[in-house]
Amino acid sequence: MSDTAQGQPISRRERLKRERKERILDAAAAVFAGKGFHQATVRDVAELADVADGTIYNYFDSKFDLLIGLLARLARLETLPGELTEALQSDARDFFVAAFHDRIERIEQGEEMLRALLPQVFVRPELRERFYQQYVQRIATLLEQYLQAQIELGRMRPVNVPLTVRMVQGMFVGLLFLRILGDEPLQSGWEDVPEALATLVFDGLNPEDRE
Amino acid sequence: MSDTAQGQPISRRERLKRERKERILDAAAAVFAGKGFHQATVRDVAELADVADGTIYNYFDSKFDLLIGLLARLARLETLPGELTEALQSDARDFFVAAFHDRIERIEQGEEMLRALLPQVFVRPELRERFYQQYVQRIATLLEQYLQAQIELGRMRPVNVPLTVRMVQGMFVGLLFLRILGDEPLQSGWEDVPEALATLVFDGLNPEDRE
Amino acid sequence: MSDTAQGQPISRRERLKRERKERILDAAAAVFAGKGFHQATVRDVAELADVADGTIYNYFDSKFDLLIGLLARLARLETLPGELTEALQSDARDFFVAAFHDRIERIEQGEEMLRALLPQVFVRPELRERFYQQYVQRIATLLEQYLQAQIELGRMRPVNVPLTVRMVQGMFVGLLFLRILGDEPLQSGWEDVPEALATLVFDGLNPEDRE
Amino acid sequence: MSDTAQGQPISRRERLKRERKERILDAAAAVFAGKGFHQATVRDVAELADVADGTIYNYFDSKFDLLIGLLARLARLETLPGELTEALQSDARDFFVAAFHDRIERIEQGEEMLRALLPQVFVRPELRERFYQQYVQRIATLLEQYLQAQIELGRMRPVNVPLTVRMVQGMFVGLLFLRILGDEPLQSGWEDVPEALATLVFDGLNPEDRE
DNA sequence: TATGAATGAGGGTTCATTCAT
DNA sequence: TATGAATGAACCCTCATTCAT
What pLDDT score was predicted for residue C68? Predict the structure, then answer.
């Protein structure tokens, strides 16, 4: 009687709860990114989210659990597999530029969350493991498969696949890190990064006979 | 040799002090790397260094100042300019492999200190700035000059110099990061990294006519 | 009998309310006895009573008020006056054994509630006073009168009446306490307590010439 | 060299520490007895002991640990075995009066600590067990042996030894409890308690042939 | 100069109570 | 009237720093 339209039940209540949870995570990302996880107090987060201190504990088990929440949300930003497989047919370099664009954009989107998370990823084993699995390993596997296939098709130079993939991945993390450090040249040239990245990386992957 | 020729008065007292300071920094690096700066207590450091809590404050102004101390010590590990300039003449690829070897080794040496420092570098403006200047900018400038020169000599493909340099630097940070994350393939293939790195980066820098 | 003769309008609604209140008190007794008043949360009580947190506040003013409720309910378990007065005529020792049996049983019945209450009785003046009046003083007065009468009839040794009554009462509390402490001999010999109690107390009250 | 007079070493420092620990326990007893363990804050204790909040944690692991400390101190007040064994020879009734006097006095001495402890003894298993072993069981065993011996010597009526001992012990606890409840007759007649207690208990223990 | 006990501000977390639905 | 999420005051405890010895 109260919810005949079972499709989207409880609607109101439920939606408010979800919104509030998101608001808290937004606040956590902003506050942690701004002053660092330890410098930030739960009250800082609560104030920015415009809730009472205690309310946060209705949604998260602990201050630390907010980081887990951010990590989960970050994982939701990840998709690429779709593009990747369909792009396998197209020209490799074009694909790389597109993929780089995609990554670079995501970094921009998620930068705040990454700034909030990364320092703790170094330090908390639980976070480290989750981050590695969700954020690094999955992508590494995809890239390895792609690279291997390209090499077998003769479209790329035979290289040490696992290490090369790590280097490319590492480069993204490293660029993010330099951005966070406030490196001027990188910030002003940010939109040219994908092209430069492709030039650096891809041309090096060309089979010798390309010339 | 370094002791006697110094003007004499350093002896005993002075050397003990210096040793003790180093012991404290060793302990700080180990403890901070192990549990993170905030999880670690000054007492943890004191105990590992085998001194009393208060003693640390005879050598450092604050807990945070220990990080500054580590940063300074890290800077002392940096030299390359010497090699770099002399190697400018030699074959570029050979130079790169050598330089990469050097960097990779240093990362290993300094990994503990970097693990202690990096998370805080994200978070403390003062540390960020020092780190950027001592550890990033100086090297970036050198690499830019070198790259520019090579390009002008026609030995390298004309690329976006500042961005390319950032990518290479970023890769080192990124690789360190992946190592800290515990990435298996990277750890087991660590000694092959310089060669793979050179293959990836350098071949991509070749002028087209090289072939 | 108690239901129909009441004037009718009690039905349903009213009875449900009363039942619910009892259910909440049952839960409170169980929870407080199990973990102690402060360790127990209102939510613990609510969950065991199968109501929402807020519902409890429709029946009780505060968490503390639950204790008052338990005390009131405990008082309802008390009656003895009836037996006492009628037994005044019978043989004193027989009366004592019967009375002890009665008390010992009550202790068993009310043990959970007493475990919930006693610790707070020590600590909360309001509770202390109510408990003393309802649970101690009334009975003390009765016992004093009885003892005084017996003495005057020459059936008991002339003793310090008020103190002796306190000792007997105290013994009940003390035995309950030892039971709660988990004393093995007391628990396994519990059904023999009335007889042993009578032997100890009553024989000591005999006039010397009785033998 | 620094402490040749090994007899009372480190003296100063060590004694100050011990004194401070006692001062904290004094304060804890007073505060917990006054408002109850949970109503009292660590700060209350600290203020009364005239130390900083944190100082308490240099001496005790937690707030709860203060109770353990009180229990330990209470145990130190206990001795009787000495008297007990030597008094085994003397007249039993005289011994009882003396022993009762002793107990009653101790209760007065330790009342504050007992008021602080008892409510929590009901509620904390760890405390309950310690209290039972240190404070009840030891004495129960002694009394049982004594009583048994007296019975075998024909000086006391053969009774259920374990239960009778529990009753006597329980009476002490119960009297303390009534005292805490503020019972007027008990308080004003407190000094007569040992005599009344002996009359009640001991005469009941007389063999029938005593007359 | 080294020591380590004392300090006390600060913060994560709990939970009784309220109140909109 | 029942619900249960929101509230925020309160409190235990940690730990960087100080300082008397």
Answer: 95
